[in-house]
Design brief:
The complex is a heterodimer of chains A (88) and B (998). Chain A has 88 residues and is mainly β. Chain A has one helix at residues 36-44; strands spanning 3-6, 10-13, 18-22, 52-58, 66-72, 78-83. In chain A, strand 1 (3-6) and strand 2 form a beta hairpin. The two termini of chain A are 24 Å apart. Chain B has 998 residues and is of the alpha+beta class. Among the domains of chain B are: 14-126, Ubiquitin-like (UB roll); 163-290 and 422-495, FAD/NAD(P)-binding domain; 899-997, Elongation Factor Tu (Ef-tu), domain 3. Chain B has 23 helices and 50 strands. The longest helix of chain B is centred in the middle third of the chain and has 20 residues, at 464-483. Classes of the chains: A mainly beta (88), B alpha+beta (998).
Chain lengths: 88, 998
Amino acid sequence: MLYILCPHCGLRPQTEFSYGGDATVKRPELNKEISDQDWDNFVYLRKSPRGKHLELWQHISGCRQWIKVERDTLTHEIFTTYKASENT
Amino acid sequence: MPENFRLDKGGLINRNKKISFTFNGKKYFGYEGDTLASALLANGVHLVGRSFKYHRPRGFFGAGVDEPYAIVQMNRNNEVDPNVRATEQELFEGLEAKSVNCWPNVDFDIGAINNFLNKFFPAGFYYKTFMWPKSFWYKIYEPIIRKAAGFGAASIKHDKERYEHKYEYCDLLIAGSGPSGLASAYAAAQNGARVILAEDKSRFGGSLLTSDVTIGNQSGQEWAEKIISELKSMPNVVVKNRSQVFGYYDHNMLVMSERVSDHLPKTDKYIPKQRLWYIRAKEVVISSGSIERPLVFGNNDAPGVMLSSAAKEYLKIYGVLVGKKPIIFTNNDSGYETAIEFKKNGIDPIILDTRKKASSEIIKEAKELNINIKFSYVVVAAKGYKKVNSADIARISDDKKNLSNIENIKCDCICVSGFWTPSIHLASQSGNKTKFNEEIDAFIPSQSKQKETTLGAANGVFTLEETLKTSFEKGSELSKQITNKENKVSVPTIVEKKSSSHDKFWCVPLPEGKNYKRFLDFQNDVAVSDIQLALREGYRSIEHVKRYTTLGMATDQGKTSNLNGLQLVSDVENKVVPQVGHTTFRPPYTPVSIGAIVGREVGKHSKPTRKSPMHYWHEKNNAVFVDAGVWLRPRYYKQGNENLFEASKREAKNVRQNVGVCDVTTLGKIDIKGPDAAEFLNRVYTNAWLKLPIGKARYGVMLREDGIVMDDGTTTRISESHYHMTTTTAQAANVLSHLEYYLQLVWPELNVNVVSSTEQWAGAAIAGPKSREVLQKLFPDLDVSNEGLPFMGYMEGNLFGVHAKIFRISFSGELAYEVNVESDNGNYMWEKILEIGKEFNIQPYGTEALSTLRIEMGHVAGSELDGRTIPYDNSLEGLVSKKKDFIGKRSLRKSAYVEVDRQKIVGVVPLDKKTSIPEGSYIVKDAKAKLPNPKLGHVSASCWSVEYDNPFSLAIIKDGKNMIGQKLFAMSPLKNKTIPVEIVSSHYVDPKGERVRS
């Protein structure tokens, strides 16, 4: 079971969090025309990297903040965690 | 029956307490402190089971976790416990156990015919034989194999025992209380570290309990006792026996299974049978020791052949002789220690040493005791079916290839020692890259991935002096890093006998003309010939060889067989062992009961139960409850002998004719505040929100980015920048996370805060033509007329001294209001409503009537918003703004979403106006079409329309828009029903929506 450093609360077990997928996906801006392809890529297409992965977790049973976690998908090593507002 | 094999004195058992037990229906006696294995051996019982495949007689091979044979079925406390290792089961008064995998009994086992048919059961037998005909598998092959193979029988009854989980944090977790575990724990404890020391057995000390050493001026056992009692007295140390650390998971999370009550006749009330510890440790010390390796020779599985270390343990701890005429067959000095113990207790052993010659302090001592030692000698084959009675022994040539001077000698046990295999399981589980150590012919931990350190025999260190020295050091060093304290511990003087090096020989060749089975994996019946066959058939990777032959795949996970299997593969392949590599070690190290893994999460405890503040009123008034997510909601209120159908019809009818009240506390509620709240809602919902006036509610639909409807509900503007959102009961948590996601990550510039207020408010829906009269009497000071409180209006009021929020919203399609008060006042409100409503014939209604009311009105709910539908499908396209952008809008342009014959919600009425349509039925054009009958869509919800007194359903079907008036069929293959139906509008009752505005 992972041990995740919540930047707001400290080290907490994985059971307090819920997974939120790839953190590098940026939602297209509102009211801006976008091609079908680009929109589909945003909605459906995700990389499944072996190794470092920047991903979202929400501390649902804690501070309820969404955080960014840099994790190795192979070894589960967690390198750094960021607040939602922090640049990675 | 007297114990013929118990010594008069010695051992660590309590000879003052005699214990009676039964095995296979026969009564025996043992002593407190015995295991089932030691007590049976004291009584001369060696035959305890039958082997997995060939049903060969099997006895005891080890004395602990590595035991491959002695698996028994326990009957304790009126519960059965399958697959218990007799070597670990402590004896208690009245213990009942029996053998497994034999029929009719262990002494005469029909399945043993397999042994004589063994030519037909080679490696991969199942794959080769049962491939065809395919249809035979389920009906013939599988049932036969299931009966013939396998060990204990699991109970089909509910397990009444109690299991618990515990979460713990520590600085150092130390797995194993042998010399390295004790020394490192002691040093770490002195530095003030929080230490957990875990020992699988009931006694602490590991090898110190059986080895002939001196530490300081004490024996090994005395020293262990002293250290343990000191550790127990320290507040920063937790010492646990009967506790196996069986799994090493990510981020230094380890799981330990504590057998709290297994050694007692029955579990005390409120005490668990077993407890699972989830331990997060800053550092882990693996001091799990080593397991003796067998030597491989003919019939080496016969009862009476066992590990020499086990024989020594039975002697020194339990005062039990495993035989009175032992052969010690060894390739190293450990066998001599066992022989010396036998000799000291008046038994004359013969030592067969595979080495040409060897000399050491231990060998010298054996010689001085006049023990018969034969160098360059091996056991060729054990003789005797249900118990060893003699052995063929032979001289072996220096190149270990040829046997000569074969002779048969009498014996009653053969104690084997093929040197030691470090228990690297936990280290390997942690991700440690292990390496092969040529000197000891075994893998040891090497490069750590997590915070773990392996010490002592588990690390391939077999001298006590070095073990203690490094363990004191490591314990001190690891703890110092955490506590920043250092209290030096001095290493005591150690006296131990030095050993000479072992012989790399491990497998005795077959004598000419003989075809003995030489077993590698004792529990899965994998012999040398099986591995050779697999290799001849082209299997190369050790992982494939393992799966094809099942080597190391039994419940003992190959603790005694893995390395010999690797040796064999490397010998045949002419490779060295490190090239072959070892198979992956996975948790659990020893079997764990399912009950322990489940813990207390059984029955009602498997999920939390949420109850509304009015729950006890519902209970008192004959509510029949239904699970709605984790909530318990009244499904209907039973009057007299009513059934569900009758009661819900009565309740729904009363809403249509008079007035009803429904507990809607479970609806999700989210409080939204901030200057940008309107803008945020405008982005979240599909419809327009910027112009919603204060004191007004609006119905909204929210989508996921892929255009699928996520949830619906009403949101009310309480004040300039304060909104009250409601969600469906089921989606409340998801919607909150969804909102937080957009606020925190996508649009952090919006100044809005959201918080769940579901539990802060109790809600009651008052619905029906007379609801306004009820409301007026509840709030006599308010103007609740159609003008004063119009449809979708909101006001606050004083409900007999209690602050209340009043929303004029309707799910039933009738004139209706929802009143919210603070949760603590919920029951007060509820009782007031019923009291006031009495004169208007108010009745409470449950979820069944609630569904009926919404279905016949064509209001969508969870069964339509099922994660597969877009607004159009639910006839909600009128709520989709064309002017503004919102979450998921861009997806609605997808070609599949704009097809002209896109699916849409419709109403369905059976032609006979009598037959209810099962939910989930398919709508088809032609009931007699060839299967699979092309489906137009499915029935999402069904009810009995109280308005028209006939069945009515909602369905989402292809081209629903143009299907109104069509005669189709509803088919339910599950219920075996085909019902002719007519498609009608989904708004079956009050299609213009006049009632809600009346």
